[in-house]
Amino acid sequence: MSMKFPFFKRKKPTQLQNDCDLLNVPEHVAIIMDGNGRWAKQKGLPRVAGHKEGMDVVSNTVKAAVNFDIKILTLFAFSTENWKRPKPEVEFIMRLPKDFLHTYLPGLIENNVRIDTIGDFNGLPDYTKEAIQYAKDQTKDNDGLLLNFALNYGSRYEIMRAIKLIMSDADLSKISVDEIDESTFSEYLYTNGISDPDLLIRTSGEMRLSNFLLWQLAYTEFWFTDVLWPDFSEEIFKQALLDYQQRKRRYGGI
Ligand code: FPP
């Protein structure tokens, strides 16, 4: 197995890693992986070729996150708005988790990675759900990197869903109005139990949140790059981490 994943085994500190102050890496990094379509178009390839390449870059990014000792990596893989895309493209993206896990799950297990998702899981096609559920079950006891895929995820939907869940608990007298504060509200989000992202990266030069983690990103540091997702690399990841280390996080204080 390790022969098949020779590059995934956690290495001794690399030069890249030595350049970073490992005590000050963000605990939770969230990434909006954008630009697959443009990458493909630039190469005269169909859009789905960009998504395929983007899938392999996910694997490299996970390896880098393990090497950098990041605890949580949340990747925006499919939004509730992405269903508006042409059906063949949606189907292609929905098959990527199975492809990805078929190739990379043994390496992820070997590296103690736990896989989870946020978003409306039940709204995914059966073949997507089955592949991911299998990976969740196989990795549930791992306590290394949490690899968290946002799939069929929309932040406004998530917030509205939380309100409905709170109202339903209130109807059942499980919660009273006085008990609802920021911390209790967070428990009704998909990200319950996960710390808010410290760093958000978005590729492809777009500077918007696209309905991603609106509540959770309140005090997150943002980092944008013009690089298209299929060209993202450990080197660019390191640049984001080095820039993050220069930021002064004040959380509204002075
Ligand atoms: C945005 O680029 C990308 C997506 C909507 C799909 C992202 C999916 C992956 C990177 C692969 C995910 C892998 C797994 C394992 C789930 P875009 O198509 O909007 O690019 P464009 O803005 O250039 O058109």
TrEMBL record:
GO molecular function: transferase activity
Active site: 34, 82
Entry keyword annotation includes Chloroplast: no
One Pfam family recorded for the sequence: Prenyltransf
Keyword Transferase: yes
Domain of life: Bacteria
List of residues binding Mg(2+): 34, 221
The enzyme's E.C. designation: 2.5.1.-
Function in brief: Catalyzes the condensation of isopentenyl diphosphate (IPP) with allylic pyrophosphates generating different type of terpenoids.
Protein name: Isoprenyl transferase
